[in-house]
UniProtKB/TrEMBL annotation:
This is Urea transport system permease protein. It is a multi-pass membrane protein. It comes from Aminobacter niigataensis. It is found in: Cell membrane. Belongs to the binding-protein-dependent transport system permease family. LivHM subfamily.
Length: 296
C-alpha cells in the first residue's frame, strides 16, 4: 500500500510536468527542452519565498505559477516565436535556454548577484520546510500513508480538472483546440494564433512551476533537478498519446507505479530501466500512444 501511494505521488508529478509539455507541443509543435528548468525555477521560487517572505507551501503554489508562467511568456515572445516551423532549431534553442538558466542559478545567485549576497539560492543543495499538518501520516488498511504525498496526488487531480475545464469549457480552450488542429484555418476565422501560442506556452510553464513547488517538499532543490523530469515527461506524453489529456494521465499513472514498485523491489536504476522498457513496449504495440485523438 505504501509503495502504491509513493507511485501515485511520482505519477502526480509526472502528470503535472507532462501536461504542460503536452499542451505546448500539441498546440505549437515545439519540443521545449527548457521545460524541466521551469520545474527548477518553481522549486527555487519556493526556497526564496519561504526563507525571505515567510510563505508556506500553499502560498508558493500560485506564486510559482505566476513566476514560471512569466518566464514561459518571455521565452515564447523572445525566442520560440521566431522559430516556428523549425523543429530542430527550436530544440537547440530551448536546450540552450535550459543550460543558461542552470548556470545563472549556479554562478550569479550562488556567488551573489551584482555583489549582493542572496541567502537561499545557489549551487548548494536547498530544502523546503513542509507545514506540520503535511508531515503527518495516516493509517489506511494497516499501512502508514504520508499526508504530503496524498496532498500531491490531490493537487494533481485538481490541476487536471482545471486544465480540462480550461481546454474544453472556455472560449480560450476552443481557440487552443482549433489552433492545434488547423492553425491556418483558425487564423483565417479570426483567431489570433500568436496570442494562443503565447498563453499556451505560459500556462504549460506555470504547470511545471507548480510541480516544482510540490517536488521541493520531498526532494532536495538543485540547479539541475529539472533535467530528469523533462525526459520523463516526454516519455509520458509519447506513451499516452500526444495532445490527449486522458492519455497523459493514464501514462503518468502507469509509469509512476512501475517505477515505484520496481525501485522498491530492486533499486532506482532497475526502476528507470523497466520504465524505459515499458515505454518501448507501449510504442511497439501502440505507435501513436495509449490514446489517439480522433480527427476528421
Amino acid at each position: 500500500m505504501e509503495t502504491f501511494v509513493i507511485g501515485l505521488s511520482i505519477a502526480s508529478i509526472l502528470f503535472m510536468v507532462a501536461l504542460g509539455l503536452a499542451i505546448i507541443y500539441g498546440t505549437m509543435n515545439v519540443i521545449n527542452l527548457a521545460h524541466g528548468e521551469m520545474v527548477m525555477i518553481g522549486a527555487y521560487t519556493t526556497v526564496l519565498a519561504t526563507k525571505h517572505l515567510g510563505f508556506n507551501i500553499y502560498l508558493c503554489l500560485p506564486l510559482a505559477f505566476l513566476v514560471t508562467a512569466t518566464f514561459g511568456l518571455i521565452i515564447e515572445r523572445t525566442v520560440v516565436r521566431r522559430l516556428y516551423g523549425r523543429l530542430l532549431d527550436t530544440l537547440l534553442a530551448t536546450w540552450g535556454i535550459a543550460l543558461i538558466l542552470q548556470q545563472l542559478i549556479r554562478i550569479h545567485f550562488g556567488l551573489g548577484l551584482f555583489g549582493i549576497e542572496i541567502d537561499g539560492l545557489g549551487s548548494d543543495l536547498q530544502n523546503v520546510p513542509v507545514p506540520a499538518e503535511l508531515q503527518q501520516a495516516i493509517r489506511v488498511f494497516g499501512a502508514n500513508i504520508p499526508v504530503y504525498r496524498a496532498f500531491v496526488f490531490v493537487a494533481a487531480l485538481a490541476l487536471g480538472a482545471i486544465s480540462w475545464l480550461l481546454i474544453f469549457k472556455t472560449r480560450f480552450g476552443s481557440q487552443l483546440r482549433a489552433v492545434s488542429v488547423a492553425r491556418n484555418t483558425a487564423a483565417a476565422c479570426g483567431i489570433n494564433d500568436k496570442r494562443v501560442n503565447m498563453l499556451a506556452f505560459a500556462y504549460g510553464s506555470g504547470l511545471a512551476g507548480i510541480a516544482g513547488v510540490l517536488v521541493s517538499g520531498f526532494k532536495t532543490v538543485s540547479p539541475d533537478m529539472g533535467t530528469p523530469y523533462v525526459v520523463d515527461a516526454f516519455l509520458v506524453v509519447v506513451a499516452g498519446g500526444v495532445g490527449h489529456l486522458l492519455g497523459t494521465m493514464a501514462s503518468a499513472g502507469i509509469l509512476g507505479e512501475v517505477q515505484s514498485f520496481v525501485a522498491t523491489w530492486a533499486n532506482d536504476v532497475y526502476g528507470r530501466t523497466v520504465l524505459f522498457t515499458v515505454v518501448i513496449l507501449i510504442l511497439l504495440f501502440k505507435p501513436q500512444g495509449l490514446f489517439v485523438t480522433k480527427s476528421r
